[in-house]
């Protein structure tokens, strides 16, 4: 099992809190309430009187009085009294809290060799309380105390050896100090020693040994150890895989408020075995963990709010939680932020911002982010469409087991996009994805195997004219590839219609720059022929073809802008593309441009301009243009009312199968007794 599963990356020490990065720095222990072994029992010296008041033995506990007697003893140079005074000032017990005063007394005692004082002084140097923050000074005092057997100092010195603060990073030395404290029963040190064995730092990686030390600490109620041990039981590392034991330990840790355990337990309640489902409790635990700053919990909760899963849909909260988690370096949150900006859900669509977040996550090894970057390059979202670059990113994700990337690599190999056309390689990638349950890959695999691909087979065998086209297309002629795509799209006497084969040849022609093939791919995505309907992908292909001057693509891109499909609704942009196509004589665009002027969409309503374009479309034989021209004559918009002229155009549209035109024609006939000219 990879140690990253346990978050055992030792880094800078976070004093006073456990992070598996450095282990837990143990704090100054308040000694009041119970007399330590070896403390004086009866009256005599000032120290003994101070201890009696300090512990409440032989006298009623009175810390103010204890401080008075300790001060007398300290004046005589008693190191134990100096240490006691340090404790009282550190916690503000019996005296006003004063870290500087505490540090002063600890230093006096430590300089006389008092181990407890040296340990406490080391902590203050490390925290910068009462003294300047100085890790090297902390190491000095920790080492003095540790060499005298101070458990606190042994553990804390081990932590600094792990982090390299104030000393050279040395995991082997850390292991020595953790072991000394651990063997004396210190739970913090036991957990930290377990971390070293899990990560293979300073010791040979040994999950069984890690489990042993986690178990010792867990049996003392150590929440971190309970959680980490639960992970080992879940993964079956160093111990037999035991979901029940893993769950028990996770619950124990969560009951103590451990955020990592709360998240894991909450996740189990939401998405684990059906018998454990408890959505209310699961959400509560994940929220609690997120409130405590757990980055994974914030990431998950943010994602849930972004899609409205279980919790309410809240884009603002989702964005905040994901940003907070991403700012702490959580790669899942970075990827999910990329998704929000790429899709424009909850934020304005921003491909540049999306790509930035995806790259951050991908650099940390996030396979989904690498796949998403591949998608952006394949689709040309915010970057030039470059299938070769897409293939590079897909490969990174696919090698990490991402089934979506494996399926996409299969597509690239099958269509010959950015890589060599290679059906055999396509089948290999499809199989990898299919094994993981990828439905698209399963469908592609079934198609290829049933169509004769693989082991040198090149798929459906064309005949006649199509065979000649196929030979030319296999030599890389874009026009032949596009033509062959047209044949497979509709079928002919030699070839049965086959959307998948059509797409293959259109793709091959498109990457060679063929505008007609790009437009055809746009239509296939628009209609959902051979692919799942995808307006955004359709818009991408139409745009590329439109910018090359393809009138059909320009007209369809205008339609997408009008309806807001795959692009933001934008009547001005819609009109721009309609006009480009209409000026090339595209009858559909002429009619649609007429509608823009007739309805006043993004322009000032202008019936005369509308009439002009409807007439152009009608004369080009477009049924919709003929119907709309008839309506203009019927209503007298941009022209004098003329029912005979209206009827003429209704009739022409009806001849082409327009049901609406037939209704309008019948309505005119019922309203007038006049004779209609029919051509």
Task: Explain this structure.
The protein has 679 residues and is an all-alpha fold. It has a domain of 194 residues: Serine Threonine Protein Phosphatase 5, Tetratricopeptide repeat (Alpha Horseshoe). A two-stranded antiparallel ribbon has the order 1-2. Helix 2 runs antiparallel to helix 3 and helix 21 packs antiparallel against helix 22. It is elongated.
Number of helices: 35
Question: What is the end-to-end distance?
Answer: 81 Å
Q: Choose one word for the global shape.
A: elongated
CATH superfamily of the domain at 1-194: Tetratricopeptide repeat domain
The CATH architecture of the domain at 1-194 comes to Alpha Horseshoe
Strand arrangement across the biggest beta sheet: 1-2
Structural class: mainly alpha
List keywords for this structure.
disordered C terminus, elongated, single chain, mainly alpha, two-stranded antiparallel ribbon, 65% helix, 679 residues, disordered N terminus, Serine Threonine Protein Phosphatase 5, Tetratricopeptide repeat
Layout of secondary structure:
Elements: H1 46-55, H2 63-75, H3 79-91, H4 99-110, H5 115-127, H6 135-146, H7 151-163, H8 171-183, H9 187-199, H10 207-218, H11 223-235, H12 243-255, H13 259-271, H14 279-291, H15 295-307, H16 315-327, H17 331-343, H18 351-363, H19 367-379, H20 387-398, H21 403-415, H22 423-435, H23 439-450, E1 453-454, E2 457-458, H24 464-474, H25 478-490, H26 499-510, H27 515-527, H28 535-547, H29 551-563, H30 571-582, H31 587-599, H32 607-619, H33 623-635, H34 643-655, H35 659-671
Antiparallel strand pairs: 1-2
